[in-house]
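2.7 Reproducibility. Because tokenized structures are sensitive to small changes in the input, we list the exact sequence used for NAD-dependent succinate aldehyde dehydrogenase, including any N-terminal residues retained from the expression construct. No trimming or masking was applied before prediction.
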Amino acid sequence: MVHIFTDSFTHIIDGKPATSPTAAPVIDPATGEVFAQVPVATYTQLEQTVAAADRAFASWSAKSWQERGDVLHALGALIERHAEQFTNLIMREVGKDRGSAAFEVDLAAQAISGFANHRLEDEIVTNDHGRSTKGRYRPYGVCAAVIAFNFPLIFTILKLSHALLAGNCLILKTAPTTPCVPLKFTGLAQSIVPPGVLSVLYGGDDFGKAVMHEAAAGVKPLTLELGGNDPAIVLPDVDARKVAQRLFIGAINNAGQQCFAMKRLFIHEDIYDAVRDEIVTLARHAKVGNPFDPETIMGPVQNQRVYEKLKSLIADCNAHGYKIAYEGEAGPAGSKGYFIPITVIDDPPDDARIVREEQFGPIIPLLRWKDDEEVITVAHDHGVDFTADDTEYGLDASIWGSDMERIQKIADKLYVGTVWINEWAAMTGDLPMRGVKHSGIGVESSKHGLAEWVYTQAFVCRESLDGP
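Resulting structure tokens (single pass, no recycling of outputs):
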């Protein structure tokens, strides 16, 4: 039996569930059918939510770091208690296979408990002769967070953990196509957080743009985690079979819908054919199907917008005559879901759309290279190098090989937020997560991420009016 949350999904305003005059459908991406309805927030409800958060701010910010951290620990335990329901809801709403969905739930519980222990201590500058000066950290007040569709629980936790720990009150705005997970989590969280401290609203794209417009017009600070066109650079001194397994997972996990997925696989010419053939073998044996089928390795992409873009990329590859090393089945026969076949493109040209654009799906371009400086330049020309005129992204990169001196020389020239060497997606709550260029502004995770939710204040105190 599939255990899933069966009650309705609502906004949470001032600690209470709230509905709206209109509702929006939520689509199961594996079937193309509506499985839930969610209320669409009005601007009056937004104003009510902000007012409630403003009322809650004084008492919440007055609590100690430890008290607020204890609340986060309790929220982590809440996720663990409802792990199966959240796993099944993610499978239904996002289209993830069970392993990927369960991983997201487990990571969310671990992350919030880890973030709960982060602290920003006052920095004492002077403390003598009755006069003290220090820098201290103060919460902003009422904050907003927009949740991405591809990891609705993880991104909810990433946003709220440091926001609440720092003493802010937070309003979550769900993604238009995956609202159920953050709506349900925030509802359950009301048994732990005071009213108004953590709220959630569902709204469409226009609702999110209104938040961005307000931030710009009011000169509000922003943190943005955006996309990437992440390269994986494979040196000739690796085991083709072993590295192919890592590359394949990094490219198709969550149907490729990850900002840090391996988007372009640069494989040295000496090992190119062997790695390509291993990747094709893996793709041939990977079942694309309904997430609730235990044999499924990869489910559908999450929404029609991503689905249509990926179909256009495959059509573009075919129209230009690029060699297709493998194109699999697009999910179960007759399905109306958003299934895209795992597709391996064999050494397309540098100016191909599949190379230049972030595909955000299971279409894998393999690119042959020979010279170290050449691969750095080509990788840079497609979204990594801060100095190149036509660049856009700079999120992550990975390098695979045995020659550590050679790897280090390549790594030092990559202008990205994260470099992985012989690993991928190895992230902890104590490491900063950020992008450069169009991949983002600011930092999430680690104490650096916590610092994004506060402003620094100079504090000068003289104990009396005596003295100079």
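Residues 383-391 have pLDDT under 50 and may be disordered.
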